[in-house]
Design a protein that fits this description.
Elements (H helix, E strand, L loop, with lengths): L4 H5 L9 H11 L1 E5 L4 H4 L2 E2 L2 E2 L7 H4 L4 H9 L8 H10 L4 E7 L26 H12 L2 E7 L31 H19 L5 E5 L8 H14 L4 E2 L41 E4 L17 H13 L3 E6 L9 H17 L7 E2 L8 E6 L2 E6 L7 E5 L4 E6 L2 E6 L1 E3 L3 E5 L10 E7 L2
Helix pairs in contact: 6-7, 6-11, 8-9, 10-11
The structure holds ligand FHN.
The site of ligand FHN has 7 residues, from loops.
């Protein structure tokens, strides 16, 4: 029996909600933190003079570790500087409303006290602290939704990684001509029970975020079965579309609505061109890697990340922005600086983000629109040099103000071609400035 502690023990089994009610908190949240953390965070994408290309969480594959060689990293995973409360506070201060932690990535190492496996934080690692539990408690205390990522791909489990079969290596997981007949046993006796542990022992789980759906061994029958299994345990949990086989490439959208299980699409490292009439969440890295990789200095600027948040919300999506903590349990300083900058912006402009949706108007050249409760928010990326903001003429203004200065009404004039709003010469924000337009009935 796990000692869940007082906070999680209070987790309730609430009444079953309708789909719209179930999705409501997630749709309103708009901004979440992805955390890629595991034994790969010690490796940092480097092995001798070799640097892994792309994501450092793929170190086991990219740097050619055998299972035995790789096992020594979980055996030394001892992140003494891990502080769940501090992580949650950083997410919260950035304006994020939920956290998705990689409970087990492709490497197969579980960050919680799994009774199904010894390849976990309690039995293999010297750390011997249940990371999932600590983070779940910290989220609950600070009012952030706690969510878990789980990888279907498992390079460590003998029935999943397929090395038992001739000419099969971990990079060939997506080759349909290579079938691993042992995989269904891994699914039934290992993967499903592990997912069950996560849903039964850590209180309410906001989202279960699967990954690794592309491997040919995993079937749509398994996906539908898993989705039902999860909702039977926690009826109100939300599950991403990678639980099944419906996503298309990296765009993550479900191309056949209704045919596959899953509650939302998961575009990865990209933002759709226009709004999409279904739930979706774009996940993205701050540099070019999900797992910690000091060699990667390709950081997106804070301004760029703020614009991406706005762009996504203006198209009806959520933004899941990644952090790759190091092997000691620290967020990279570059990530912390970007979280701070996003927090300063969301504190001033959050009204135009949380609970907002796509507007019916085409995106303007100078920025984006969001809308909520009879208000259009004009997010201006490029402040007009002539002091005249040109908007869609169908927007009927009752009152226009700067979001950060509600007492100064701005003059508005509709011409035959556009709506003109007279704005101050100087942009109120150094990144995205927001003009609030209350609509006439
Ligand atoms: O292979 C993974 C990758 O490491 C990372 O976890 C991302 C996050 O969406 N998903 C994968 C590929 O789709």
């Amino acid at each position: 029996m796990l000692n869940m502690g007082p906070v999680l023990a209070q987790a309730s089994s609430k009444k079953k909600l309708s789909d719209d009610e179930r999705m409501e908190w997630w749709r309103d949240s708009k901004f979440g933190m992805f955390i890629h953390w595991g034994a790969y965070s010690i490796i940092g994408g480097e092995r001798g003079s070799k640097i892994a290309g792309g994501g450092a969480e793929w170190a086991m594959d990219k740097l050619d570790y055998t299972i035995e060689e790789y096992e020594k990293y979980p055996e030394m995973f001892n992140p003494q500087l891990f502080d769940a409360d501090a992580w949650v506070t950083m997410a919260k201060n950035a304006g994020m409303k939920y956290i998705v932690l990689t409970s087990k990535h492709h490497e197969g190492f579980a960050l919680w006290d799994s009774k199904v496996s010894d390849y976990d934080i309690m039995d293999t690692a010297p750390f011997k602290r249940d990371i999932v539990k600590e983070l779940a408690e910290a989220c609950k205390k600070q009012g952030i939704k706690f969510c878990l990522y789980y990888s279907i791909v498992d390079w460590h489990h003998p029935q999943a990684q397929g090395n038992l079969y001739p000419n099969y290596n971990i990079s060939q997981h997506d080759d349909p001509s290579v079938v691993n007949p042992e995989f269904p046993k891994y699914y039934e006796n290992y993967m499903k029970p592990q997912v069950g542990e996560l849903l039964k022992n850590y209180g309410d789980i906001g989202v279960v975020w699967f990954d690794g759906d592309w491997i040919s061994d995993y079937t749509t029958e398994m996906g539908k079965d898993l989705y039902k299994y999860i909702r039977d345990i926690q009826p109100n949990t939300i599950v991403n579309n990678r639980v099944d086989k419906g996503r298309t490439g990296m765009d993550g959208m479900n191309n056949k609505p209704g045919q596959f299980a899953g509650d939302f699409g998961t575009p990865e490292q990209e933002i759709p061109d226009t709004g999409i009439d279904s739930d979706w969440e774009a996940c993205m890295t701050m540099n070019g890697t999900w797992g910690y990789k000091p060699d990667d200095v390709n950081w997106k600027s804070s301004e760029d990340l703020i614009e991406k948040l706005v762009d996504i919300v203006s198209k009806g999506g959520n933004f899941l922005l990644n952090i790759g903590p190091d092997g000691y349990g620290r967020f990279p300083a570059q990530s912390i600086r970007r979280l701070d900058a996003m927090g300063q912006w969301t504190k001033k402009n959050g009204e135009a983000i949380y609970g907002a949706t796509a507007s019916p108007y085409e995106k303007p050249k100078w920025g984006r629109y969001t809308q909520k409760d009879g208000v259009i928010y004009a997010h201006v990326f490029e402040w007009p040099k002539d002091g005249l903001l040109k908007l869609n003429k169908d927007i009927k203004v009752k009152k226009a103000t700067l979001l950060t200065d509600p007492n100064t009404e701005l003059n508005a004039l509709t011409t035959s071609r556009e709506l003109l709003i007279d704005v101050p010469q100087l942009a109120p924000d150094t990144t995205v400035s927001v003009v609030k337009i209350e609509l006439a009935k």
